[in-house]
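Is malonyl-coenzyme A placement plausible here? Inputs below.
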Amino acid sequence: MTVLDEAVSPGEPTDARGRVAELHEIRAQALAGPSEKATEAQHAKGKLTARERIELLLDPGTFQEVEQLRRHRATGFGLEAKKPYSDGVITGWGTVEGRTVFVYAHDFRIFGGALGEAHATKIHKIMDMAIAAGAPLVSLNDGAGARIQEGVSALAGYGGIFQRNTKASGVIPQISVMLGPCAGGAAYSPALTDFVFMVRETSQMFITGPDVVKAVTGEEITQNGLGGADVHAETSGVCHFAYDDEETCIAEVRYLLSLLPQNNRENPPRVDSTDAADRRSDVLLDLVPADGNRPYDMAKVIEEIVDDGEFLEVHERWARNIICALARLDGQVVGIVANQPQSLAGVLDIEASEKAARFVQMCDAFNIPIVTFLDVPGFLPGVDQEHGGIIRHGAKLLYAYCNATVPRISLILRKAYGGAYIVMDSQSIGADLTYAWPTNEIAVMGAEGAANVIFRRQIAEAEDPDAMRARMVKEYKSELMHPYYAAERGLVDDVIDPTETREVLVRSLAMLQTKHADLPSRKHGNPPQ
Ligand SMILES: CC(C)(COP(=O)(O)OP(=O)(O)OC[C@H]1O[C@@H](n2cnc3c(N)ncnc32)[C@H](O)[C@@H]1OP(=O)(O)O)[C@@H](O)C(=O)NCCC(=O)NCCSC(=O)CC(=O)O
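Reply from A.M.:
I modeled the complex. C-alpha cells:
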C-alpha cells in the first residue's frame, strides 16, 4: 500500500500546503523503496541499491529523476496488490564532470528488477530523451529479464529497448554496467551498446541460466562459470571492462565518459596537457629489440608516448595479441590500436581482428582519431583459424579501417608482413600519414619464408642447400627488407627517429584536426559479419 492508496482521493479539495506535504510524503515513500529488509538483502550480496549507484555515477546533487511515481497497471498473479513506485527502475539525468548524462538503473529489490510494461516504457522515454539531447546513456543493470507475470508485454518492452539501442548506435555513447544477474533480454541490450562493464562475483550475463543449460545439454556449471565477469572479459569478449567492486567499476565509467564526446557531432573533450608535446623518449630505443623475433611489451611503448603515461585499455584481457586503448596526446583523445608482440608474437587472429574492428568502428563513430602501432608477423595460419572464418573476421578489421574517416596515423615500429601490414592501416587503405622507425621491415613475408618460396629450385639444386638458403635470405633482405624501401616508394611518409615519436604524432594530429572526408552516399554498407 502507498500513501495514495491509503489517504488520497484525487481531486479532494485541500490547501496548497497540504498538497505539498502530501507530495513530500509520497516522494519519501518512493525514495525509500520497498523495505529495509530488501535493502539489507541487496547489501548482503555485496551490491548497492539503484539510487546508491546513481549517486556514485553522477556529480553530487545533479540527479533529476523522471517518472519517479510511475506504477504498473498489470493485473493477475497478484500484481494488482503490488504496485510499487518506480516499477523497479530509476530513470533520469544528471552530470558527469559537468556534462549531461542520462541513466537508468534497475532496482533489484522490486520484482528482482524484472522488466514489465511500465518499467520498459520508462526506459524507452529516457532513451528517447538521451537521443534527442545528444547525451550519453548509461544503464546500471541488475534485473532478472522479462517480468514473467506480464508475458508478451514484457517481451515487447525489450523490443523497444533494442530498437532504440540500435537507433542510438553511433549517435550517442551507450554504456552498459552489469551489476547483478542479467538473464535473457537483460543481456541482449548491452550487446548492442558501445561498452559493457562487469563486476566480479556479483554480475553475470547469459541467455539462459545454469538450470536451462543443464536441462538442454547436460552440462553442469555455476552462474559465474557460465557468465561471470572473468568469463566475459577473457573468453567471450562480451564485456570490455571487469572490476572487483561496484565503486571502482562506476568510477571507471566516469573516467571513460571523460574521454568520449557527448554525441557524434562533437569531438571528445580536449584538456590542457602538462606533458610537453615535444618530450623526447630515449627509452624507446631500448624498449623495442631490433631482433624482430624478440618479444617486448607494447603497453610500455604506448605508456612512454602518450600524455602522462596514462591510457585506458578496452578489452584488456581478451585477444591480448592486440591492444586497443584510449589515451591523450597533447590533451587530444586518440584511439590506439597496437600489435602486442609479447602475446602470440602479435599476430592477427580471429579474436584480435574482431576486437580491433569494433574499436576502430567506435573511434570513427565518435570522432576519435586513430593511431596504429604496427609490429605484426602476419595473420595466424592454421586449420582452426581458417575453419573459424579468419577470412571474414579479418575482413571486419579491413572494412572498419577502410570506412573510417577520422584522422588516421600509422607507425611501423619493427616488422609488418603481408596482409596484416595492409589491414593495419597502411597508406594504401587510407591512412592519412604513415611513419616508420628505422628498424622497420615491410615485406610480403619474413626473409626465410620468402627465400624458401622464390628460390626453392636454386636451394634444392645447390651442392650446399643451407649455404645457398643463407645467401638467398641475405640477398632478399638487402634488396627488399631495408627500412628505406617503402620510403623510397612513398609508401611511408617518413622514417623517423623513435625518440621523436611523440612530437611527430602530436604535430600530425594538430594538422589533421580539420580533416573532413565524405563517403559516397548510401543507405549503409554491408560489412562482413
Ligand atoms: C535472477 C535470479 C538469478 C536472481 O536470483 P536471487 O536468488 O538473487 O533472487 P530471487 O530469485 O529471490 O528473486 C528476487 C525476486 O524477484 C522475483 N523475480 C525473479 N525473476 C523474475 C522474473 N523474471 N519476473 C518476475 N519476477 C521475478 C522473484 O520472484 C523474487 O520475488 P520476491 O522478492 O517477491 O520473492 C533468479 O531470480 C532467476 O533466475 N530469475 C529468472 C530469470 C529468468 O529466467 N528471466 C526471464 C528471462 S527470458 C527473457 O528475458 C527473454 C528471453 O530471452 O527469451
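Short version: Residues 111-112, 114, 144-149, 181, 183-185, 209 surround malonyl-coenzyme A (CB under 6 Å).
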